[in-house]
Amino acid sequence: MKAQETRICRFRLTEVVVPARANAVNHPDLDRPLHKLAVAGQAGWSMQFDALPKLLIEMELDNGVIGFGECYRGHSWATVEAVAKRLLGSTLAAIPLQQVPIARCREHDGLELAVWDAYAKTHDLRLCDLLGGPLRDRVKVGAWTGHRKVEEIPAMAAEFARQGFDCWKFKCDLEDDVVGWCQAVKSGAPGMSVILDPNERWEQSHEAARRLRALAEVGNLLCLEDPLPRWMLAEYRALRHLGLGAVALHVSLPYVEHGQRVHDAILALQQGAVDAFNFNGGMAEFAQLAAIAQAANLPCWHGSEVDLGILEAMYVHQAAAAATCTWPSDIFGRLVREHDLLKASLAIEAPYVRLPEGPGLGVELDAAAIQHYQTQLKIIE
Q1: Could you tell me the strand order of the sheet in which 66-71 lies?
Q2: Is-contact 13 374, C-beta < 8 A?
Q3: What percentage of the chain exceeds 70 in pLDDT?
Q4: Alpha-carbon distance 53 to 55, whole Å?
Q5: CA atoms of 292 and 125, how far apart (whole Å)
């Protein structure tokens, strides 16, 4: 059968819930949710991320090739099933990879990935080859955590440094002693840098400026990500002009209900509001975002939602093909969750993760692990 004649003939959709490892997210006494999206009528920050289900997609072609996809947490079954039914019977060659016929929704990137992975496998290419080929065979990554107590940080920093990590990202809010955290990191791992991510929760520019002044004296802050509400680009610019540390904006296209779009990166540049970007997006749109960062000669890194192995493999391919994606990416799911559902995990050789080998994503699924964490299964054919 010619590659251009292959058709999509079946979808296997497996819902799973994979918990986080004990003590991998927050200190037990500070177990505050990190998930900022509303869920089924519940406000953001009301549910921990690992309580939400994930959906694995296996899209089968009539030549036997199976394309893998993974949806972000909190998928809509109705949306996934509707898209799968529309794609059934389509020839792979008739689907433009740059504009897969799926409207912008939170499920878009997982379904798009299944199409790209199947296309790459059919043509015996790596996923990154469809992006123009890799610029590096390994991608910088960092350690990660949620809310912590100062006294536990030096030993944790020393252990991360022993493993090879040289950057540690913290989620934080106004209640956290971020200056004490950075001092503790410096004590436990003198050469380690820190990314602080308040997820917009420092609220006012004076709160951010006061902390930046103290953090500049500590001297190990790589950047401050999303300190204020995203619409406050003038305040972002003012923070940058203090000259106390780099300011980054997270453009996360899966955050559909927050209205995030590719043009947010352009607006931030027009306002002179950022020194770097954290990007999340599917195959086609991440490439657009990465090109914007390259044109602006600004560093970026790949964000995540503390995902499983399929999405994280996609992130490695995307980052490897992006010219300025050189800051530590948020590719650490297996270090946080109990399992990544892959037969062989991504090869993290801190502070890097290696680009997977083989066609498509270059990963295989662990059927036994998937069955263990499975909560629901649907077949569409």
Answers
A1: 66-71, 54-61, 8-16, 374-380
A2: no
A3: 99
A4: 7
A5: 26
Spatial contact of 48 and 35, defined as CB atoms under 8 Å apart: yes
Is 179:214 a contact under the CB 8 Å cutoff? yes
Give the Cα separation of 178 and 157 in Å (integer): 14
Q: How far is CA 235 from CA 7, 117, 205, 270, in A?
A: 51, 41, 6, 14
- 1, pLDDT greater than 60: no
Run of H or E residues at 363: none
| 198 token code pair | 């308040």
Query: What separation in angstroms does the CA of 150 have from each of 79, 180, 188?
Result: 43, 6, 11
> Which of 220, 213, 223, 149 minimizes the C-alpha distance to 185?
220
Question: What would the mean pLDDT of 316-342 be, rounded to a whole number?
Answer: 97
Residue type, 4: Q
Confidence (pLDDT) at 167: 98
Query: What's domain 3-125+366-380's architecture?
Result: 2-Layer Sandwich (3.30)
**Structure tokens, 103:** 């409207």
Task: Please determine, for residue 231, whether its predicted confidence score (pLDDT) is greater than 90.
Answer: yes
All residues at 6 or more sequence positions from 19 whose CB lies less than 8 Å from its CB, including other chains: 50, 337, 338
Tell me the pLDDT tens digit for each residue of 150-173: 999 999 999 999 999 999 999 999
The closest of 292, 300, 309 to 344, measured between CA atoms, is 309
CB 308 within 8 A of CB 341: yes
Span(s) in the chain for CATH 3.30.390.10: 3-125+366-380
Domain boundaries for CATH 3.20.20.120 within the chain: 138-354
The CATH class of the 138-354 domain is: alpha beta
